[in-house]
Amino acid sequence: MAREGQIVLGVDSSTQSTKVLAVDVASGEVLARGQAPHTVSTGAGRETDPEVWWRALQDALGQLGEYAARADAVAVGGQQHGLVVLDDRGRPLRDALLWNDVRSAPQAEALVERRGAAWWAERIGSVPGASFTLAKWEWLRAHEPEAAAAARAVRLPHDFLTERLSGAAVTDRGDASGTGWWASSTGAYDEELLGEAGLDPALLPAVLGPGEAAGTVRDGAGVRAGALVGAGTGDNAAAALGLGLTPGRPVLSLGTSGTVYTVARQRPADPSGTVAGFAAADGGWLPLACTLNCTLAVDKVAELLGRDREQVDPGGSVAFLPFLDGERTPNLPYASGLLTGLRHDTTAGQVLQGAYDGAVYALLAALDLVLAVDGGAAATDEPIVLIGGGAKGSAWRDTVRRLSGRPVRVPVASELVALGAAVQATVLLTGEEPSAIAARWGTSEGPLLPALPRDDATLARLAETLPLAG
Ligand SMILES: Nc1ncnc2c1ncn2[C@@H]1O[C@H](COP(=O)(O)OP(=O)(O)O)[C@@H](O)[C@H]1O
Ligand SMILES: O=C(CO)[C@@H](O)[C@H](O)COP(=O)(O)O
C-alpha cells in the first residue's frame, strides 16, 4: 500500500541526457524534474565517459530541490547495450562504447557467422548486431587488448549508475538481455559464450529478478542515504513499465534511437535479426526493433536545409533513406544517407518530409514482425503509443499516422523511461504489480489522434528504393 507523503525518484540516463523525476507514490504526481546533457563523441565512433553520466545525474538531482533528500526509493533506466569497463576501484578504464557505435559491425558479423543466426535467435533470443555489448567487447579485445585485459568489472550504463548509488554490482534481466551473453533460453549468463569471449563471469554484475532491490543509497550519492535502490533496467524496458504495457499494444519511441516494441507472453526468437528478443523488466518479454537514425538524423537534415524541424511540405516524389549513422534496422551498418527522386519542383520542405518518412518507414516495416511474436499482427485499429522526445513534434506525429494508417496515442506524461524507473522504485515500497502502479498513476492517458488514410504511394516509393520485409 502507498503511504501518504512517500516519494520516489525515477532516472532516465539516455544517449543525449539524464532526466530525473520526483514522483508522489500515492498520486503519481510529478513533483519536480531535473535534466542535464551528456556529450557523445562524433566521427567514426560514439563514446561517452561514464563519469559524464554520473555528473549529469548529480546535476539533475540537484534540480529537484528538497525531493532528492526526501526520497524513499530510486531506480535507474539507462540506454541499452553500452560497454563500460572499470578498474578495481570502479573507475572507467576508457570511455563507454555506446549502442549506436557501429565500429563493432565486423565483430558482430563474425559472431553470427561462427554459430549461425538461428542458433543465436534460439539460444540467446537475439541475433547480435553492432549494438550488442558482446560485439563491443570483441571490438575492444581486437583494438585495445590492454584495456580489455585490465578490466576488473564490466557494466552496462544503468548498472554503472546503480552501483555508484548503492555500491551493489547488479543488473536486471531487461538490460542483461541486450548484452548478447545473457541467454533468454535459460535466463542466465551463457558461460560457453563468455569463455569464447575471454570474459570472466566474475567481472559481470549479478542479475536481479523483477521486484528485487539492489540495496540502499550510500552516503554522498546525491539521494537520501538509506533510500531503497531498484535493480534498474534498460530504457525501453523502463518505458514499458512506465506505460503499464500489455501484450499486443505497440509502442513507437522517437529519440536518438527509434524503437518499436510491445510486450509478449512468448519468448521471441527471430532468426532474421530484425526483432531483438529482449526480456521485459517485470518478467515477460519485450520484442523490439531499433533504428540508429531517428530524431538526430531528421534534425540534421533540417539544419542542412536551414529549416525548422516542423517546416515540412506535403507531396512530391522523393524517397529519402536518412541512414546518416549507418543503420541497424535494416542491418546496414556501413550505409550512409540516400536521397532519390529529386525534380525541379521539389521543395526543401518535401525533402525534409522525406527524411521523416524514411525514418518512420524503417520502424513501421519492423512493427508487424514485433507484433507477430505473440502470434499475429494486432488489429490495425489498435493505436500506436507514441513516446520519446520526437513525440512532441507535429511532423513526427503526422508522419506516423500517415504511414501507419493507425490511430496514435500520445501520453501526456512525457519522460516515460524515468516514470518507469519510478514505477520500479515504487514496487519496492508498496509491493504492487508495476502495471497496477502505472494504471493508478494514469501514465498512458493522453489524446488519441485518429487514423489517417495510409499513404501507400510514399510507402511504395520507399519500398522500391529499399524493399523491407514487414
Ligand atoms: N518539441 C519537439 N518536437 C520534435 N522533436 C523534439 C521536440 N523536443 C525534442 N525533440 C527531439 O527529441 C530528441 C531527444 O529525444 P529523447 O527521447 O529525449 O532522446 P534520448 O532519450 O535518446 O536521449 C531530440 O533529438 C529532438 O530532436
Ligand atoms: O539500443 C537501443 C535499443 O536496443 C536504444 O534504444 C538505446 O537503448 C538508446 O536509447 P535512446 O537513448 O534513444 O532512448
TrEMBL record:
On whether Kinase is a keyword of this UniProt record, the answer is: yes
What protein am I looking at? Answer: Xylulose kinase
SUPFAM superfamilies, A to Z: Actin-like ATPase domain
Instruction: List, for all copies, the residue spans of the domain called Carbohydrate kinase FGGY N-terminal.
Output: 7-242
Query: GO MF annotations for this entry?
Result: ATP binding; D-xylulokinase activity
Catalytic activity field: D-xylulose + ATP = D-xylulose 5-phosphate + ADP + H(+)
Please tell me which top-level EC class this enzyme sits in. transferase
Q: Which domain of life is it from?
A: Bacteria
Q: Which family does it belong to?
A: Belongs to the FGGY kinase family.
| The protein's Enzyme Commission number | 2.7.1.17
Keywords for the protein's UniProt record, in alphabetical order: ATP-binding, Carbohydrate metabolism, Kinase, Nucleotide-binding, Transferase, Xylose metabolism
All copies of domain Carbohydrate kinase FGGY C-terminal, residue ranges: 303-427
Pfam families in alphabetical order = FGGY_C (PF02782), FGGY_N (PF00370)
One GO BP annotation is: xylulose metabolic process
